[in-house]
Specification:
The protein is of the alpha/beta class. The protein folds into 2 domains: 168 residues, Rossmann fold, CATH 3.40.50.1370; 145 residues, 3-Layer(aba) Sandwich (Rossmann fold). It has 13 helices and 9 strands. The strands form 2 sheets. A 5-stranded parallel β-sheet has the order 7-6-5-8-9. It has a 4-stranded parallel β-sheet with strand order 2-1-3-4, sandwiched between helices. The chain starts with a helix and ends with a helix.
Length: 328
């Protein structure tokens, strides 16, 4: 049964392209073929999740450790469900209550996990670049579950998967990302997957929260940058709102949450400027009534719950590709 299931999953990724990455640290290292491979595997995992049992044993004998230095609900739970749905052994670790509180370094921690048999370590850390350091010093595969302000690759992949479920090919589709782009690891990873998929990306928010280096002609990915949401949202196929943190107000980057809401909340009036049937997305957790008006967050175009559901299938796909690539 296990061999038949693995054969079926391999067929789902039919083609000459194979997954060759030991780790998944960000989306900027993924080719279009890599992204398409994840998407096709996610399709197979979505089908598995619709079965009465919704589980397979393709990762039996694989140990997945979730190592979180920051609090998380969606990402951590999603990875745990994904790993268990494929028969992997799962160990959950938090910095609180671990040897980290006794002064153990990140390098020592991942080496210890490798020594006890961790095949894959899903890691969230408050410092940008921490997963890269970990990957350098362990033979275990590292999956970045979010690092500082830098990257969140599986969130970007599940966002892309959700869009593709509705639109298929994203070439020429207009995607508006609105909010605190400056400090968003979600936005940075999404930019790479969207541009690789041919989407037209506009970043919108207060000038203090949207780096001009991301604008066409600047350094890095080529996007449009706007400080006017009413103009940016015109004709959009997808509107993705990012979480705004109160620290931005305390740091003087926005005058007040009231001012932010007035200029950048996605409400029904603004959404009417987008294309009919435009998707409304949010990586979560969202501030009620801040980034999205309540009637928009729970409205017809909202796919926020779909994003959460798809997160399990996409993370199953990533775990499968990385774990099977480790096998001789």
């Amino acid at each position: 049964m296990l061999e038949l299931e693995e054969k079926r999953l391999t067929i789902a990724a039919d083609g000459v392209h194979a997954w060759r990455h030991k780790d998944l640290l960000d989306t900027d290292t993924l080719s279009r073929e890599d992204i398409d491979l994840v998407m096709s595997q996610a399709d197979a995992m979505t089908e598995i999740r619709t079965r009465p049992v919704g589980k397979v044993a393709t990762l039996r004998g694989i140990t997945v450790v979730t190592l979180f230095y920051e609090q998380s609900t969606r990402t951590r739970a999603s990875f745990e469900v994904a790993a268990k749905a494929m028969g992997a052994d799962v160990v959950n670790l938090s910095a609180t209550g671990s040897s980290v509180e006794k002064g153990e370094s990140l390098i020592d921690t991942v080496r210890t996990l490798e020594a006890i048999g961790a095949d894959v370590v899903v890691m969230r850390h408050g410092k940008s670049g921490a997963p890269y350091l970990a990957a350098r010093y362990t033979k275990s595969s590292i999956i970045n579950g979010g690092d500082g302000r830098h990257a969140h690759p599986t969130q970007a992949l599940l966002d892309l998967y959700t869009m593709r479920q509705h639109f298929g090919d994203l070439a020429g589709r207009r995607v508006v990302i609105v909010g605190d782009v400056m400090h968003s690891r979600v936005a940075r990873s999404n930019i790479y997957t969207l541009l690789a998929s041919g989407a037209d990306v506009t970043l919108c928010g207060p000038a203090t929260l949207v780096p001009r280096t991301l604008e066409s002609g600047g350094e890095g990915p080529r996007c449009r940058v706007s400080t006017n949401l009413d103009e940016a949202i015109e004709g959009a196929d997808v509107v993705m709102a990012l979480r705004i943190q109160k620290e931005r107000q305390e740091g003087g980057l926005i005058p007040s949450l009231r001012d932010y809401i007035a200029g950048y909340q996605v409400n029904a009036r603004r959404l009417a400027r987008a294309k009919p049937g435009a998707l409304v997305m949010h990586p979560g957790p969202k501030n009620e009534g801040v980034e999205l008006a309540p009637d928009v967050a729970d409205g017809v175009g909202s796919v926020i719950e779909e994003q959460v559901t798809n997160g399990v299938a996409v993370r199953m796909a990533v775990l499968y590709l990385i774990a099977t690539a480790r096998r001789p």
